[in-house]
Amino acid sequence: MAYEIPVTQARAELAELINRVVYGGERVVVTRHGKPLVGLVSAADLERLEALAAAAGATGGPGEEPVATSVSRVDSSPFAPGERQRFGIAAEHRGPEIR
What we know:
- With about 100 residues, the chain is an alpha+beta fold.
- It has a domain at about 5-55: YefM-like domain (YefM-like fold, 3-Layer(aba) Sandwich), CATH 3.40.1620.
- It has 4 helices and 3 strands, in the order E-H-H-E-E-H-H.
- It has a 3-stranded mixed β-sheet with strand order 1-2-3.
- Strand 2 (about 30) and strand 3 (about 35-40) form a beta hairpin.
- The chain is elongated.
- The protein starts with a strand and ends in a 13-residue tail after the last helix.
């Protein structure tokens, strides 16, 4: 759980907050009117967060969600009767033929 502190108090105690984050391993959430503004985390935590975001394919834009960039498996089960017509599917990939 992160330690929460109002922005006005955080200004006065910035050096102490930095020490708590770096040496105490704490995470600090700076608030304004009770709402979170920013989080203070160690450089090591930031590197881990950035690595996780990169691994997830996140773009880093505000409000954007990660997008899948590849397909790991395609289910080759046949369509149920009528599904091709219902969804307007004109073609189907069957993969390489084995001879």
